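Repro:
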Amino acid sequence: MLTFTNIDSTQLTTPSCLTIGNFDGLHRGHQMLLQQLKAIAANGNGGRLPQPLQSGFVTFSPHPLAVLRPDHPHWLLTTPEERVQLAAAQGIDFAVIHSFTRATAALTAAEFLTLLKDHLQLAALVVGPDFALGKGREGNLDVLRALGREMDFTVHVIEPVEWQGIAVRSSQIRQALREGDVSLAATMLGRPYHANGVVVQGDQRGRTIGIPTANLQTPENKLLPADGVYATRSKLRLDTTIYHFDSVTNLGVRPTVDGLHRRLEVHLFDFPPSAARAAFHDHIRDGNIYGRELTVEFIARLRGEMRFDGLNALVAQIRQDIIDAREILATA
């Protein structure tokens, strides 16, 4: 997939079929819209054009709410870069991450669509039924259709998706995660919810009890599930190679050891790998993975965060958590 920064610094030469939005989470509803977009692009916009259109995905950074309502923190399910990666997996031809500023918010619908016509060769626009763009959301579906007739592009409206009787919306996924229901979130996303970040040094208490953990530093505005212990799967990137591990993850302030800050701590099972995986040991020495990229997929919540009567009780529970996580991951 080709990826561009900002619409006005991009110049395509062939017609495109576009969708525009935040697409936070790129959930099943978004995925359905992208599949429809691909189909419309492939058949030349219903046969109106003799050749297929390029399929394009336009999203924003930062999230518009971060600009328009900076006093109300907005937690993201996916970063713009993650959205682009997920759209690429859906087979979209190109993506544009457009910088959202107050100047962007002040553009009228006609002005924004003119940018799309001039720079991305807009021929078809694919949106949901509640979509609107432009200053004050003036560009509703009726306005878009009128502008389409004037500016020579078509508007295609894709209905919302329900999955197993559940309305699939980013707000519903956020609520599920805040309640620790990562299984429900995965159902709506079509994949496990994940957090990606860099391994940083912690207090190394896990090593002293024989259960070492990797402390993961995630983006500041990344939404993390409710505090608790989770069965997880982890991907460790070492240079160009990705290693997969089952894992158990603790998310919270660690009340038994008087933790002061919320942390995401991951215990990787069977780490480091056996000597037979010599390539792994070519990347690192002494199991040191500080500064490395780690992705954690949340599969199931084992329990909430608890305070224990001393370190021995805590260690006993962690060992039980490991057993429980292994059992769940063996059949997940």
